[in-house]
Specification:
210 residues, mainly alpha, Four Helix Bundle (Hemerythrin (Met), subunit A), elongated
């Protein structure tokens, strides 16, 4: 069975291959033509979709692999235990009678702590994976990628311009060199997330220290 490293590597590989194919098509297009400009806009939209898509895939894969370990919530760090109970906590907020709170505090919470952790509610991108949301989701998983901070400006621009394209606005990418700057930033941020998740899983940093 493939481990988390294999799963994330395979997902990155097909995404990078598709981006490389787009780059090749842009390079082959006559310069300063409608074809080149159209391909650059298309590449930008595809780049964003792979950035968001990989991050979502990586978070889900991490949680899926963690579920397979059958770890009790009481053995998890507070961040991970809280994440596994996110759906339950949302339901509780909608039923805040005195009786509900007493029942939860006296019996249900203890049961949940001693149960195997599952992650019924996964992390979301809100279809706009800005750097602050990327950081929040990484923090919820107990990991701290650093390259998102170094490339926050590029990622903000990637999201913003992708929204312009999605809304049919006339957003122009100057040339392949401009595009490659943002592709490089996005790929570095994606790889950094993968490395952090793999290291966390291999070292079991999601568990409370003895």
């Amino acid at each position: 069975m493939p481990d988390l490293s294999d799963v994330l590597e395979a997902d990155l590989n097909w995404r990078e291959a598709e981006l490389a194919s787009f780059t090749a098509a842009i390079m082959a297009a006559p310069k300063s033509t409608i074809r080149e400009k159209t391909l650059l806009r298309g590449a930008w939209a595809i780049l964003y979709s792979h950035y968001e898509g990989f991050c979502k895939f990586a978070w889900d894969a991490y949680l899926d692999e963690l579920e397979k370990k059958s770890v009790k919530r009481s053995e998890l760090t507070s961040e991970m235990a809280a994440l596994s109970l996110r759906k339950n906590f949302k339901s509780l907020r909608g039923a805040l009678s005195d009786k509900d709170l007493w029942e939860f505090g006296s019996t249900k919470f203890l049961e949940m702590q001693n149960s195997i952790a599952t992650f019924e509610e996964k992390l979301e991108t809100d279809s706009n994976l800005w750097p602050n949301l990327y950081r929040d989701n990484a923090r919820a998983l107990g990991v701290a990628p650093t390259l998102i901070d170094q490339h926050a400006t590029e990622i903000k621009t990637l999201v913003s311009r992708r929204n312009d394209i999605a809304h049919g606005q006339k957003m122009i990418i100057k040339d392949i060199q401009e595009y490659k700057k943002y592709e490089s930033a996005a790929l570095l941020v994606m790889h950094d997330l993968a490395v952090c998740l793999i290291e966390s899983f291999d070292t079991e940093s999601f568990k409370l220290k003895a």
